[in-house]
Amino acid sequence: MSIQSALATFAGKSSRWFLQTFLNGGSSLPGKLALKIDPSILDSLSKDYHVIVVTGTNGKTLTTALTVNILKQEVDSVLTNTTGANMIQGIVSTFLSAKKEKGKKKFAVLEIDEASLSKVTKYIKPELFLFTNIFRDQMDRYGEIYTTYQLIVDGAKNAPNATILMNGDLPIFNSIKTVNPRKYYGFNHQKEHEQMAHYNTDGILCPNCQHILHYKMITYSNLGKYYCPNCDFKRPDLEVELTEITTMTNTASSFTIEQENYQIEVGGLYNVYNALAATAVAKHYNISSDKIRKGLAYDDKVFGRQEVISIGDKRCTLVLVKNPVGLNQVIDTMTLAPYDFSLVALLNDNYADGIDISWIWDSQLENLAELPIPTVISGGDRHRDMTLRLKVAGFDENKIEETNSLKEVISKIQTVESDHVYILATYTAVLGLRKELIQQGFIKGASNND
Predict the structure, then answer these.
(1) What CATH number is attached to the domain comprising 140?
(2) Scanning 136, 219, 229, 337, which has its CA 20 to 30 A from the CA of 288?
(3) Please, which contacts does 229-237 make with residues 24 or more away whose CB atoms are closer than 8 Å?
(4) How many domains does the chain have?
(5) Does pTM surpass 0.85?
(6) Which active-site residues does the annotation give?
(7) pLDDT tens digits, the chain, 450 residues: what are they?
(8) Which of 296, 329, 348 is the last residue of a domain?
(9) Domain residues for 240?
(10) Which of 232, 261, 296 represents a domain boundary (last residue)?
């Protein structure tokens, strides 16, 4: 390690200790400081690790957590960015947090923001990339889906020998050649029949001839067993297949992958995809089915991903939402609930949320409006826009309570008729709400991203 790298490491570790000891924070700031001293600090910090990178639009955080939990059944040391700080400064902070361990096989499983991937792989050379999906998301930051895909392909190109594990059900992941070798995972759990995606679906044009793709099986959005009726473009062969979904509720799912039965303690079809992706990583490293099963079965809820919080006597499920495909999957999961629930919808438009909020109009909130939801609380910086969207979706305006105060949101939650509450919130709204809940004593501990 050079003198510059040593100084950067010392400064980063010292600032991290201070921030965590006195301010309960420090997920990104130590990395920023270290990078100012040594822009190539990641090169020296990561050199002793087997690095796995998880990127894509939806599912990065839970897929990373599941992958880490599986690997922990196999090896002693697994480093990961648990705070969700997935840009370059957060990745540096993650490595600064590592304890010195000699003689052990060390893994780092890193969730990395799509736009930051090429900046990180300029210094880190992963041995495996995991691509979850690409959907329209924060167009002010990423642009169209093809632009986003090019960003992560360019990032992977910096480590050309690393294999890319891709979601084979997504057409865009088969649209261009890559310098990296590729493997695919996907679903083969339904009887095939001819069908087409919903007309308001992105990414359903053949990349070769621009014909509309057809499907023999669809899971959701444009995911499924696709083919072009006008040329030879079709879903590639799958290395790891999910062949059956045994049960699915709003809080758990069980399924079969490669003739082995597994279960996850989180609801929704989209989370089964996350479990399949983590399993594909495990298969890549020849981890046994028993260890995969143990890794998937853990029930620690990840920050903002169906996280259950008690607010007074109300059992609240907090879910991060950020784009129409993700929100629609959350809505489908909510409709599986065997009990009545109230709804809280918090919409912010800060940079981390995406300043363009038009995506709420492409979501299927109408499906929620059909349920007997007794109370709806609309909040966040763009609460007026959220309220209008809910009214247009068909919610009774007399049941909608609107506020831009998180304190008032928490107070209102405690007075709703139902025992259960679903809280749907954009990223900074999740952070703000959790901070307020910590201050009021409903959550112990803190998880601040500075």
Answers:
(1) 3.40.1190.10
(2) 219
(3) 230/206, 231/206, 232/208, 233/174, 233/206, 233/207, 233/208, 233/209, 235/168, 235/169, 235/171, 235/174, 235/186, 236/168, 236/174, 236/182, 236/184, 237/168, 237/184
(4) 2
(5) yes
(6) 356
(7) 677 767 777 666 776 656 665 555 556 777 777 777 878 788 888 888 999 999 999 999 999 999 999 999 999 889 998 755 667 887 888 888 777 776 577 999 999 989 889 988 998 999 999 999 999 887 666 678 999 999 999 999 999 999 999 999 999 999 999 999 999 999 999 999 999 999 889 999 999 999 999 999 999 999 999 999 999 999 999 999 999 999 999 999 999 999 999 999 999 999 999 999 999 999 999 999 999 999 999 777 677 789 999 999 999 999 999 999 999 999 999 999 999 999 999 999 998 898 999 999 999 999 999 999 999 999 999 999 999 999 999 999 999 999 999 999 999 999 999 999 999 999 999 999 999 999 999 987 544 333
(8) 296
(9) 46-296
(10) 296
* Same domain? 189 vs 228: yes
Answer whether residue 34 is part of any domain. no
